[in-house]
Specification:
It is a single chain. α3 runs parallel beside α4. By secondary structure, the protein is α/β, with parallel strands linked by helices. An 8-stranded mixed β-barrel has the order 1-2-4-5-6-7-8-9. The protein is 24% helix and 23% strand.
Length: 231
């Protein structure tokens, strides 16, 4: 299995009652990347601004994710995500997090498409990915043709799959078994070791070697004079 490990974080990793924030320098000793929660519904994650800037300052490549919420208009959610990040969209993809069960009026795969299509108009060539679980995606999308064939739309987005305590992740249609990009393999990583205040932390593998990771996201190698903030 790949040894390229990254963390994903939100306000849950920072204790608001202390002045301390996430130690991204410490995190970067163990993690090659971090994916930061930008928000949910029509609100920003309360820590996203300093998490985004502190991670960059520490030189750890960043992706972001947005927790899709069926209670809010998908286009408005996409617009707030882009507004939240400003002109800095990060080094890794923007991942749409599909796992909610609120039962709002904008639930389901057709609304996810509305979100993704609108987001593409806002971010141009910036890469967009999807985070989900096997059973969630399977159970919330069509299982019979011809509608099932429409799920091929989602294949264009690289997959970040959540699947714990397994030798390899289960992959939902329309993605293929070995074609996942990231695999969130645990939610109980050692928080303190990764510089956060929560006891546990989510950890993910990149599907490839460190060299492939750097090439995939156009990151410099150690010692490179390009983009000196990184590595």
């Amino acid at each position: 299995m790949s040894q390229v490990i990254g963390a994903d974080i939100s306000f849950y990793q920072n204790n608001i009652e202390t002045p301390k924030r996430i130690d991204f320098v410490k995190m970067h000793t163990l993690a090659e990347f971090v994916i930061i929660r930008a928000g949910q519904n029509l609100w920003m994650d309360r820590d996203v601004k300093w998490n985004w800037s502190d991670a960059k300052q520490a030189g750890i490549p960043r992706g972001s994710y947005w927790f899709y919420d069926s209670r809010a208009n998908p286009k408005w959610q996409a617009e707030l995500w882009v507004k939240t990040l400003g002109g800095d969209l990060g080094e890794l993809p923007m991942f749409l997090d599909l796992e909610e069960t609120y039962g709002g009026p904008y639930g389901g795969w057709r609304s996810w498409r509305v979100f993704l299509d609108h987001l593409k108009t806002l971010v141009g060539n910036k890469e967009i990915g999807i985070y989900t679980g096997f059973y969630y995606f399977r159970d919330n999308t069509p299982s019979q043709a011809p509608l099932r064939l429409e799920l091929e739309y989602f294949h264009q987005y690289p997959l970040w799959i959540a699947n714990y305590s397994m030798p390899k992740p289960l992959i939902p249609f329309p993605w293929e078994d070995i074609k996942w990009l990231l695999w969130q393999y645990t939610a109980v990583g050692n928080g303190a070791a990764y510089g956060v205040e929560s006891k546990g932390i989510d950890l993910s593998y990149f599907n490839g070697s460190l060299e492939e990771f750097r090439a995939r996201f156009h990151l410099p190698t150690p010692g490179s004079s390009d983009l000196p903030n990184y590595y």
